[in-house]
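P.,

For your records, the input lines for the assembly:
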Amino acid sequence: MSRALAFTLTLGAAPSSVWAAPDGVRSSPEHATADEEWLSLHFQTTVAVQAHPTFHADYSGKNSLDPAAEAATAMVMNLATDLRLWHGADFMFDPELSGGAGISKTLGVAAFPSGIVYRVGNPSPTLYLARLALRQRFDLGGGKVHDESGPNQLGGSRDRDTLTFSIGRLAVTDVFDGNAYAHDPTTQYFNWALFASGAWDYPADTRGYTWGALADLTVANYSLRTGVALLPKYGNLLEMEWNLAKARALMLEGQVRYRPGGRAGSTRVLLFANQARMGNYEQAVNDPAAGLDVTATRTEGRKKYGFGVSSEQELTETLGAFLRASFNDGHNETWAFTEIDRSLAFGLVQRGRPWARPNDEAGAALVLDGLSPWHRRYLAAGGYGFLLGDGALDYGLEVEGDLYYRAQLTKALALSGVYQPIVNPGYNRDRGPVHVFSARFRVAF
Amino acid sequence: MAALAPACDSDADNVCRDVGNCTHGGSDAWITACRTQNDELADEATAVGCSAALDAYFACAEDHFACDGNRSSFPGCEPKQALYSACLTTKDAGTACGELARGLAHCAASDTTPHGSALAANPCTASDDCSARCYLDSVPNPCAPLATELAAFADCASHCVF
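Structure tokens returned:
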């Protein structure tokens, strides 16, 4: 689900600057300027058609990817409004419109192949509030840098070292888990486990947004971030639990930036701890009263711990590499993102300058996802999660490729072709492989 | 921008949302059907003069909603439900129970429809009234229900939040 759009506004409008600053910060050292943009308005819409041909499946369950050939279209549109309130403070207001559906109603693949679909039942276009947040930055010295104007970012000068607080409705992935090469499904890789750490059951409603308070301290080549955010009241639903004593997501992330051989690189390590009224896979399997339904075992106070590592490295002026690795303990029910308990992803991104199309981009990545022992036993016994459930399971790693080419037709217009082969969809060796093809059209200004 | 502001849902609508989220995985279809069912009951309660009792029940149900695992309950609302049931019983003629009883009265003497008989013979509780409304909506000829109609009746009755 994507909640993927959450990331659109972080990196999507400034692909060139990503190469200049691989930590995803759209800024570059320049002379200080008194010019401060007071209002920023950016729009983007992405439409994607996705299809797969018939594939082999020994059996299917109610949450399986349909083995018959199918196609689906989804779209998302958002307006990023950012208003400067006073020095260092801005107010974000982003309405968003989304509609359509994923193939097989966004079921049957843990690392789902479309980053712009949501796991909501209603495919009709729906307008909702994506962001409504106040951000206050305190300048801490270290020289001046200039931020380019972008979605949810005002142009203007600031100190290199900053302490920034954000509070309100937002996407936690705006601040945490960034990666210059794998973070925006509207322009980069399309797969869920590539725009975010797959095993981070990150706090969000089914559309990718939540309410929270986040802090980011950046000093020279180091950043330390922390935050608390709401989790859904029920697994994979829109309603949030506002009682932090009952449910909450805590995050702590450290980042270091470096330049080996003069090439920019960065590594982030994220620790997370979620608490919510989750069900427990072991109990669902062992307790006959649960009827092999993990939702019947939901109890207050259940926790989920884990970590995520996100690295990126510029290799040449036009070639970059990334790696994502993440893990959660996998004892309790998947609550907000997707049914992945272990994830490893890596890939390369090449800009088009060598073939005289400097704004085009090609990427190739591999994703390997796995489940905890109890999670796989639950699915093997015939249990259903909110995304997976074939009625049985011959467990194997879910392995996916993600190959894309983005042709930047004009400054505002881009067309991408994406191919994603999926081995063991839903971790099931009795199903697949399946080949998923997508065409993605994006307008942004 | 109006769509950004959530509409003010009634207590009954909120009860459907809560039960749907807890018990039915947030199914939009279930929640919509539940709300439709509640609207029909509200119209009926208004017609027979029991709307205050029904509103009081739903207000209580919203305030006291509990979700244990994936089971919904409304602890402490039994008295409100009993008051509503009592109101329906006294106004039986105007309720779905009464309507169903009258429909069944036209059936042949050999008719043995157990559901209708039970509804006709017993006081009309809130649960009975909701079920009777489902039966009337799902089965055009109460005397000769088809299997598919009974399936629709069972599905409808599953949306009764009593």
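Two observations worth noting. The CA atoms of residues 170 and 231 of chain A lie 13 Å apart. Chain A has one domain: 2-444.

Regards
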